[in-house]
Amino acid sequence: MSNSVNISVETTCENQIREIAYDGTELYQPPPTLSESLAKCAARIDFSKTSLDNIKKEEKSAAAAADDDNKDANQFQESLWPWDAVRNKLKDAYTEICVLTDVISIAKDKRYLVLDPLLEEPDDTKPIVQVYSRKKAISQAAQVLLGGAERIRNAHSEQRSRNVSDFHIELLRLRQNWRLKKVSNAIIGDLSYRTAGSKFGMSGTFEVTKAEDALDDENSGNNTGGSANSSSSSSNNGMQLKASSALRVIVPSELQGVAYIKVITQKDQEDLCTAQVNLMGHGQNLTAQVGVWQKTLEFAQNVLFCKELFAQLAREAIQLQAPIPHVVIGNQIRATLLPNIQLIISLCHSTSFDSSQPAPINDHDHVLEHSLHQLLREVHYKNSHHPFPHPASAPLGPSKKRMLAGPTAADRDALLDMTKTQTILEQIIAQAQHIFMRKRTQYVLDTLARDVKDPQIVSHWNAMNSPTMSCVKINIVTHGYDAIGRTSLVIHVKERSLKCICRDGRVMRLSYEPQELRDLILCQINSHQISCLVSLARCMAWTVLSNSNHLGIGKVEPLGNASSCLLASPNSDRMIAVQIRCDPQIDVKVYIARSPRQDFFPSPLVPEKFWENLGGNFKEVRFDKIEGKSFLNKMEFLMASLTSNTA
Amino acid sequence: MAISSARESLSHALTNRFLPNLEYLLQGSILDSAVEHLMHRLKGLCDNVDTSPEPFHDLEVCMSLRQSQSNQPLLLRVRRALGRDAPFQMRYLGQPEVDIRRPTLVRSCMDCACTNGILDFLSEMGFRLEFEYIAKGYMFRKGRMKITVSKLIKIVPGKQQDMANEPISQSYIVELSVVAPTGQENVGEEMRVFAEQLKPLVQLEKIDYKRLGNLP
């Protein structure tokens, strides 16, 4: 390398510098001789430290010892003789060993001295302090116990004096009837119908707490249990306001108060029938046993139920596509049952009990109330009760009908039919329509039975009927002539129509218009009268020349018409013609004719008497003047009188 | 509750042209002496405690068809409820997957209701009888889970209706199953939680059939 730099390297000095001259030269101390270093090392031996521990310590503090070297060196220099320190130390050690041998020999001889193990002196604790601390601790524990006992005694005596039921007993009763669970320190209950199959989103949780004292109870009574208290005092089941319970339930604000669903059938703004779904009357017996909370919870559950019912109805009202659309405004649903007749379902929820408590509605329809209640319960039941499949490997869920669809090769229409279900609103509308139709039919039949006296109209309503179908049997008889003839017909009252089945097998379908039913009954009365007359004539040996149930005169009705009958006396010299019209009232006309006339005068047109046998002129009889109670009775008299004349 | 309305599932079937169902299954067994305890517990845990448990009495016939291209025969199970007017159920079960990550055994499955001519039809197609047995017991429902506790009864050939048929063992088989469309992974977890609740009485596990040897 051309441009390398020279670096001088020198060893560090091994010996200590003794002196630095003014010119800078360093005078080194000559290295110690072997004897000197031996003396130095020997001086460093500490003969008093002989135990193993000390040696180890010595090794550890080797670094520290290096520093001491300088001091040793000084001592070494000061001492007179290099081995002086060693000698002194050895001498000390020798003295110590001598003393040790003396002690050992004395101890071994046991002549002068006996070694006994010494009792270790215990810690210097004062017993009096210990006694005091123990006493204090015990007294504290006693105080805790006494305090607890005092509380329990107070609670017991209070309970005995105030006759307040125990919180835990009440909780047990609550637990028997309601769902409760413990969440950290609080007790939370659930009053929703979710476990019964409801899918309503609103939560029905309530909180259970211990009522602190009577004052608190009253305060809480104003906001939570107010409705319960006032209702229980108003109801006559013996519940007193004073009967404060040790348990308090806190119901969410949206479930407080009283709710009910009002169903009104309205015709041209006039109420026809009203139903009120209100489950408040339930569980009276239970309430007497248990506390106020039972009432509160029942009310809250009722509110929840009504809300669910109304929400469901409102949802269906919007989804359904009716010819006249349903209207949902606020808390009210309007649906049209029949022309001019409306069903109004409204949710009434009042939080303050007494002010908005409606006056009891007299026209309370228990059937409709029950139906609405039942319909939602049915939905709940169907939600939670699916049929089990058979055989067991079949899938869970499809109904029995749908399981059969494959093997029976159901077509698309049949499958689609299976998917159709009636909503609650549809069902309640159908039921309301039916109730209305039934009332209307009853009204028509009753007024007819009142107005028409001659043949008697007797209607028998079936006691057993379905919510949307009932059945009435109508018998038309004439008093005194029951054996001769009886006309009966059956009317099936459906939702929007009537179905009439006559005895001869004719089936007629009528609409909801009451006039149609009225016409039908009147026509049936007509034909009843004629057919009875025919039978009566036969009994009296008269000959029926002709009869017709539908003359086709007057107003042509689809269900029947004027009817007539022509009778001839046994020896055919008299004839009676009867015509009964039914529009608008029953109108009977009777004509008689006799042939041959007793007085015969030959004329150029009728030269011989036998021509008179062809029949003569009919003369009208003033039927209302004829004696007799009824049409048949009068006719019997008439026929009898005409017969006797010829005899 | 995952049981959708009939209309929905019908439209789903129409659009997809296929019902890709999976069966999630856990099995276990319990001795005859302890089955009462299990029934009590199931009554408490399952839906509709107010009604008594639903009994069933089924005859299962397994038919197999040898396939030329593979040595694994095609198995079809036909099940019939004895003493009850219900359609036969034909069932195809796919290969069970025992995945460690899943809490249950999973196999594809296809159910089909049939008329009573199905066995003749299968015989004509070339299916041969593989085995048959009677399962008799009770079933429970919890949400979409189906729990069956059944006794398997051996059949003496030709005497299906005979009451003298012997039970296979002194214990009941307990099955917990859910049939769900593919892609519903939380089913397994739901079942595992339920199986935990039956724990000391019956240990419901995913049983790997392949390890049981040559059993069909």
TrEMBL record, chain A:
Protein's UniProt name: Mediator of RNA polymerase II transcription subunit 17
Species this chain originates from: Drosophila albomicans
Gene Ontology CC terms: core mediator complex; mediator complex
InterPro entries, sorted: Mediator_Med17 (IPR019313)
Region of interest (Disordered), ranges: 214-238
Keyword Transcription regulation included in the entry's annotation: yes
Chief location of this protein within or outside the cell: nucleus
GO MF, one example: transcription coregulator activity
Keyword line: Nucleus, Transcription, Transcription regulation
Sequence ranges of Low complexity compositional bias: 220-238
Family stated for the protein in its record: Belongs to the Mediator complex subunit 17 family.
Places the protein is found: Nucleus
GO annotation terms (biological process): regulation of transcription by RNA polymerase II
Highest taxon listed in the record's lineage: Eukaryota
UniProtKB/TrEMBL annotation, chain B:
Described purpose of this protein according to its UniProt entry: Component of the Mediator complex, a coactivator involved in the regulated transcription of nearly all RNA polymerase II-dependent genes. Mediator functions as a bridge to convey information from gene-specific regulatory proteins to the basal RNA polymerase II transcription machinery. Mediator is recruited to promoters by direct interactions with regulatory proteins and serves as a scaffold for the assembly of a functional preinitiation complex with RNA polymerase II and the general transcription factors.
Subunit-structure text: Component of the Mediator complex.
Highest taxon of the lineage: Eukaryota
Organism: Drosophila albomicans (Fruit fly)
Listed GO MF terms: transcription coregulator activity
InterPro entries per UniProt: Mediator_Med18 (IPR019095)
Pfam family, one: Med18
Assigned keywords, A-Z: Activator, Nucleus, Transcription, Transcription regulation
Entry's Gene Ontology cellular component terms: core mediator complex; mediator complex
Record-given protein name: Mediator of RNA polymerase II transcription subunit 18
Assigned protein family: Belongs to the Mediator complex subunit 18 family.
Predominant cellular place of this UniProt entry's protein: nucleus
Gene Ontology biological process: regulation of transcription by RNA polymerase II; termination of RNA polymerase II transcription
Subcellular localization: Nucleus
Annotated coiled-coil segments of the chain: none
